[in-house]
Amino acid sequence: MSPEEVCDSxxxxxxxxxxxMEKLKKVGDEISRRMKSVLKDHRDIEWKFLGSYARNTxxxxxxEIDVFLLFPPEMDNEELEQAGLEIGKRLLDxxxxxxxxxPYVKGRVMDVEVEVVPCYRIRxxxxxxxxxxxxxxxxxxxxxxxxxxxxxxRLLKQFLRANDLYGAEHKVKGFSxxxxxxxxxxxxGFLPLVRDAREWKRNxxxxxxxxxxxxxTFTVVDPVDPERNVAANLxxxxxxxxxELCQDFLESxxxxxxxxxxxxxxxxxxxxxxxxxxxxxxxxxxxxxxxVDDSLYPQLDRALRxxxxxxxxxxxxxxxxxxxxxDSKCYLMWECAHSQLPSIRLHSGPPFDLxxxxxxxxxxxxxxxPFIRDGRYMVxxxxxxxxxxxxxxxxxxxxxxxxxxxxxIRDEFVxxxxxxxxxxxxxxxxxxxxxxxRA
Amino acid sequence: MSPEEVCDSxxxxxxxxxxxMEKLKKVGDEISRRMKSVLKDHRDIEWKFLGSYARNTxxxxxxEIDVFLLFPPEMDNEELEQAGLEIGKRLLDxxxxxxxxxPYVKGRVMDVEVEVVPCYRIRxxxxxxxxxxxxxxxxxxxxxxxxxxxxxxRLLKQFLRANDLYGAEHKVKGFSxxxxxxxxxxxxGFLPLVRDAREWKRNxxxxxxxxxxxxxTFTVVDPVDPERNVAANLxxxxxxxxxELCQDFLESxxxxxxxxxxxxxxxxxxxxxxxxxxxxxxxxxxxxxxxVDDSLYPQLDRALRxxxxxxxxxxxxxxxxxxxxxDSKCYLMWECAHSQLPSIRLHSGPPFDLxxxxxxxxxxxxxxxPFIRDGRYMVxxxxxxxxxxxxxxxxxxxxxxxxxxxxxIRDEFVxxxxxxxxxxxxxxxxxxxxxxxRA
Lengths: 439, 439
What we know:
Two copies of one chain form a homodimer.
Chain A: H1 3-14, H2 18-38, E1 46-50, H3 51-55, E2 65-71, H4 77-91, E3 94-99, E4 103-109, E5 112-120, H5 135-145, H6 150-161, H7 177-187, H8 190-197, E6 204-207, E7 211-212, E8 219-222, E9 225-229, H9 236-251, H10 267-277, E10 280-287, H11 293-313, E11 318-325, E12 329-336, E13 344-351, H12 355-363, E14 371-373, E15 376-382, H13 388-398, H14 403-411, E16 414-417, H15 428-434
Parallel strand pairs in A: 2-5, 6-8
Antiparallel strand pairs in A: 1-2, 3-4, 4-5, 6-7, 8-9, 10-12, 10-16, 11-12, 13-15, 14-15
Helix pairs in contact in A: 1-6, 6-7, 7-8
């Protein structure tokens, strides 16, 4: 199949059905009706549909309606937050409160997910008080311009979703919805974008003018706020993976790029792979702190980095590390080159002819007797850790890995190692990718 | 005891006994007598006693007489060698031929070891044709000057012998007899030398003027050949060990520095030490090529270095290596940090945005699937060797380790590893030092 044929076929599958469209229209109308009555007492507050619902760029089955409340800029913050929550609660059939820069209400209307987000009404980015104030400007910029390209936006979103690249949040570090729409708009469609992206480099500037950055930051300038890089949260490695996918897709176009068949290995298969590698694979499992992903993942990353650095410092040679979470559990994982080290290590001292230092060094009692190599004193000392498990357990129990993470770890943790890790069914697929044997 | 008392006590033990002196005098007289008759047909050849016998600086029990034949400089080389051998054979009761720059005869007269060495008679080093021609000049320089310091020369020789530092040959890389005498002469005795040596550095110049070299070469200028460094064969590490010994001796003087009690561990003790370290200790044993030490050791060193580099290249982390030989066997040995490595290793590829290279890299089929880290392609590849034994055996069988060494190894070799090496009784003491646990 040609890329065009693949795209046409995929579009038909990801475009919301007539029924879904009608249903969302109906919910939208219901929200408008309710808003009229809810806002009766708040003459100074405007409201708007924003996001993929407003621009008709949502993916089939991913219905979600964003309702923004636009408050006058002179209103104080507390008042905004309070009114925002109150309006949200009155609008929704069921709700919960979530926390971004402001608290906001998330819930359902007629069984469709709806978010009610308060912000300040501004005319340009210079007036912005928090990032969310910019969202109405984004919509204003895109709403007319994107018309006719909605299916291409969906293609890109599906392409990214299928490859774990969709979303700017910390967990993913991929492409935001807004970035998707800007890219489609700028290239005038999915395939022109993909063709262009094959050549992207780490210092590419896509928009507003094509060029290069000095500091190796891939850049897409926000048309409503030229100081801002819309791709700031996209990690280097995810940029690289996107470039790779674009190259691969055009080389052999197929729907698998949009609907991948992921192989989920069973316990036996994963166990065999692990034993075959003869590395030290370690997974630290602990209860998930009660945090949303965007708060949790930075903390997991910090804890991971801290333990990895300690493993490296003690010569276990971390080949790769990763983190993962489910609703109830967190996982930190490592693959080390060495499952066991000598009980001793070589410790380097001063040159023999820095006599004062050399004499001091020789007088310390250690495991071995100091000897001279290449004119320098050396000695064998006992290692603190012989196995990576010892290092990780010590860190888990005694090191500050961040308040929330450390609290949960001290409640309870399990450290799996070797083929035993294949017993954790939650992370089998993640481990399979982690070991990078995905075919 | 004071250093002086220790030295006096040791001097009495290492000075040749009256009986030994008398015996050597008798042998010397016998050689003189024989020489008269042997040289009847060679009017143009002079002869001399040189070395420690001639200067009365040999150690008790180390009797050896050096007889030098001084040929006229106009004689051609072949004639010199032929006449030298002929005279030697006629002089000695039993003999064998050894090879230095010229072949020479080694044997016994009245059961004392005698060497008969031919050289050219020269007046100064500028006329020298081979290094051995300089030896009579050395004797000429020292013979009067060293008088009265003979016992101090013996002290230094014994001090060095006891600590494996005596001899300039490749196996030892220590202090030659001539260097010992020059040092004693320059410092006017053993104790002043030892006091001074505590402060020596790698760039020290001892003689003729005290100073420093630019290129970190410890230097003692040859008074009969100012271009020559008499300490050229002294290795940096042996210089450092000498400095350490001088510091230690003056800190706590004792006869042990001259007559060390070496602990020879038994099989059990050595096995326990090895197991306790949890390293990979490997010993390659093979028959000794028929070579004198000074030809053998450079070859052992080259073979050792070659295998060590290969072990390093395959990530086994050589902590220390060494070589040893007996009359019939050679031993190369290593201590590696890892007795086993993962079956895979991380192989680094090009950055993703060197697109041409990256695409080529991705197309190669390997153990794993390429992935991206920090913007660069990486892939797992199978290792060639998982155990250091595999690497050493492969090198032993298939690599050129030098003609003589490779020939012998291909005849027969044994590779010991782990606690098994403690079964090789020949090298137990050497291994004990090698592991640097000597108390």
